[in-house]
């Protein structure tokens, strides 16, 4: 069943260049509808909340809800396991628990959260923020995607009412467990079955804009140029070197670039690049950000250009719940799975959920550590093992 879920969900939004499934687009709506069918087939109660989160509910006899799940939106040219495994693994776990144990004491729900990746709208963790009551009232009428589509209009196209966003807020959650692929190679390299995530890193996204002078590529001597791209490239190289010298687990990526006017015969007058800086220690992350800013200012002066830095995202590290980690550890041992404690290198819905709800994550290996690529793959055996550990933990928490 789990393998079928992975493959069928992975076909929705799949292209020769990888997965493209963005919040509220056609592929996302197809995924929502497929999940609702599978939820019904599993004997669970399905529903979609005001922001588009999809739920499958196994009602319990007592108060409170234990929630599990992840997200189904993807990065551009992504893979079929990131996020999706946590959703279909949670669904398979609830279906098995219902069949084997009947009615739980505490209600169980599986959720497919929306817009974890910010691939379409600058609305990171939109689904989780909706559940926690953290969406600003003006967001649907303010945020637009790269094509200029208003978030509110996209919601209406998906059958949702942007005026009802506040109704997605929840106050009945007692715990959240997220099954996820590691997206790195620690488990694969060490031959460990599952990872128990202790901390999710603090993440800062910044956009660096460098303004030089646009000139003729043939008639402007090298020593008289104010080439925005060369200055930006020097900044990126020195930033990378500084973070490399800091060592693990510090990481930085300069993955998005814009060059204007972008012609072979013109010295670039503008270059813009992104900085994604991560570290599980907020103090270290912020110290490295200071280094980034100092490097940019120094290089700009050296090249005679102007530089502007804008903060796009600022997420603090999140520590997972110790008691839930103990439940996951015991569940892994019950399932005969080897385990290790570890930090997450990536950001997840769990980091925001942990600010309000006891939260923990369990990782399964990614082959060769690949993720955010069509080459992303986790073996069927590892998928099933992760879902089994999750189901065992949910049984302990709900019965």
UniProtKB/TrEMBL annotation:
The family database entries (Gene3D superfamilies) matched by this protein are listed as:
3.30.70.360, Zn peptidases
Task: Give the superkingdom in one word.
Answer: Bacteria
What does the UniProt keyword field contain? Hydrolase, Metal-binding, Zinc
Residues holding Zn(2+) 1: 71, 82, 180
Cofactor(s) listed: Zn(2+)
Q: Please give the InterPro entries that the UniProt record associates with this protein.
A: Amidase_Cbmase, Bact_exopeptidase_dim_dom, Peptidase_M20, Peptidase_M20_dimer
Cofactor annotation remark: Binds 2 Zn(2+) ions per subunit.
Q: Where does Zn(2+) 2 bind?
A: 82, 117, 372
Q: Read off the PANTHER family from this record.
A: ALLANTOATE AMIDOHYDROLASE (PTHR32494:SF5), ALLANTOATE DEIMINASE-RELATED (PTHR32494)
Q: What is this protein called?
A: Peptidase M20 dimerisation domain-containing protein
């Amino acid at each position: 069943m789990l393998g079928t879920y992975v493959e069928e969900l992975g076909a929705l939004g799949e292209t020769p260049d990888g997965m493209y499934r963005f919040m509220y687009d056609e592929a996302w709506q197809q995924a929502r509808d497929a999940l609702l069918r599978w939820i019904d087939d599993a004997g669970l109660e399905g529903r979609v909340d005001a922001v588009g989160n999809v739920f499958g509910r196994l009602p319990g006899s007592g108060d409170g809800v234990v929630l599990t799940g992840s997200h189904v939106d993807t990065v551009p040219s992504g893979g079929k396991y990131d996020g999706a495994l946590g959703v279909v693994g949670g669904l398979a776990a609830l279906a098995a628990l219902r069949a084997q144990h009947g009615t739980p004491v505490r209600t169980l729900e599986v959720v497919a959260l929306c817009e974890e990746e910010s691939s379409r709208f600058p609305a990171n963790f939109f689904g989780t923020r909706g559940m926690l009551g953290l969406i600003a009232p003006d967001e649907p009428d303010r945020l637009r995607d790269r094509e200029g589509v208003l978030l509110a209009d996209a919601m209406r196209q998906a059958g949702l009412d942007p005026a009802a966003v506040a109704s997605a807020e929840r106050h009945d959650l007692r715990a959240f467990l997220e099954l996820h692929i590691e997206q790195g190679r620690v488990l694969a390299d060490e031959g460990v079955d599952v990872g128990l995530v202790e901390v999710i890193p603090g993440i800062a996204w910044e956009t660096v804009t460098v303004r030089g002078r646009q000139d003729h590529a043939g008639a402007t001597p090298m020593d008289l140029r104010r080439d925005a791209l060369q200055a930006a490239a020097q900044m990126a190289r020195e930033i990378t070197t500084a973070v490399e010298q800091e060592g693990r687990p510090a990481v930085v990526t300069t993955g998005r670039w814009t060059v204007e006017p972008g012609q072979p015969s013109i010295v670039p007058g503008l270059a813009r690049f992104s900085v994604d800086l991560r570290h599980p220690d907020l103090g270290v992350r912020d110290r490295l950000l200071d280094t980034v800013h100092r490097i940019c200012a120094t290089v700009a002066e050296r090249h005679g250009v102007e530089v502007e830095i804008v903060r796009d995202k600022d997420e603090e590290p999140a520590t997972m719940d110790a008691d839930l980690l103990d439940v996951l550890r015991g569940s892994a041992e019950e399932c005969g799975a080897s385990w290790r404690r570890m930090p997450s290198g990536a950001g997840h819905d769990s980091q925001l959920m942990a600010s309000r709800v006891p939260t923990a994550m369990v990782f399964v290996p990614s082959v060769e550590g690949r993720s955010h690529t069509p080459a992303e793959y986790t073996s069927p055996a590892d998928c099933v093992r992760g879902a089994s550990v999750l189901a065992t933990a949910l049984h302990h928490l709900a019965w």
